[in-house]
Design a protein that fits this description.
An 8-stranded antiparallel barrel has the order 1-2-3-6-7-11-12-15. It is 13% helix and 59% strand. A hairpin with a 4-residue loop joins strand 2 and strand 3. The two termini are 37 Å apart. It has 238 residues and is mostly beta strands.
């Protein structure tokens, strides 16, 4: 909580201490973007000559992929292993509030972007079914050195979850509020969310007896930050 408060106060300080040569909120615009967050829709407004604010929502469509994973179970009093095909789903919805801080006022539209994304905790949803595990009444799917439980019907339902509040930093080019009717902008940055955590809807996460370095484990181990590249078309309302 203290980290969240610190970030919020830092963002407010940027807006309040920047040189204000024009009235606050005297223009309004909107932006539509596409990139690694999916499709974004934002409302934009100037805070000062040096700072412009973007607030909106990003929708990642349900892009899916498949990956094999090891499963462990007990049958006829013996511990056995097998494999199951799992589906990963990247679909999620996030909100964002981002401040474009221009390095040389908005006349030269190079900016540092600071802000935060929130909501959309499910980075990857993991689902699957195993007829083999349904016959024996359940088991465990191995992801790295942890296991996700499989229910008595052979179903897997869990995923990789990140923090609900994720600070964002980036670098971009373009005005959030177009000088004319339309403009183009882009930024490249990262959401800072730390190591994603495994979760399951059917039980608790346990330590695995075996290790399976599948696609889901690679995401969990290596994706400490979420890279964000967005191309945006801006509209000026007034």
């Amino acid at each position: 909580m203290m980290k969240k408060i610190t970030v919020i106060f830092a963002l407010a300080a940027i807006a309040l201490t920047a040189s204000a040569e024009q009235p606050v909120f005297n223009h309004l615009g909107a932006g539509v973007g596409v990139g690694t967050n999916g499709i974004s829709i934002e409302v934009t407004t100037p805070i000062t000559d040096w700072v412009q604010m973007r607030a909106g929502v990003s929708f990642m469509p349900g892009i899916t992929f498949n990956s094999d994973a090891e499963v462990s179970y007990t049958a006829a009093g013996m511990h056995r292993t097998s494999s199951v095909d799992l589906k990963g789903d990247l679909g999620r919805t996030q909100g964002q509030v981002i401040f474009n801080v221009y390095l040389m006022t908005t006349r030269i539209p190079l900016y540092v972007a600071v802000g935060a994304y929130f909501g959309g905790r499910d980075l990857v949803k993991i689902t699957g079914h195993s007829d083999e595990l349904e016959q024996v009444g359940g088991g465990d799917v191995v992801i790295g050195d942890y296991t996700i439980p499989v229910d008595s019907h052979g179903n897997v339902d869990g995923g990789l979850r990140v923090k609900s509040f994720r600070p964002y930093v980036g670098l971009g080019w373009g005005k959030a509020i177009p000088g004319k009717l339309l403009n183009f902008s882009m930024d490249l940055g990262v959401q800072i969310h730390g190591t994603p955590e495994l979760y399951s809807k059917y039980g608790t996460i346990n330590t695995a007896d075996i290790d399976d370095d599948n696609t889901f484990n690679k995401i969990r181990d290596k994706l400490k930050v979420y890279p964000t590249l967005t191309f945006r078309l801006g509209f000026r309302a007034f």
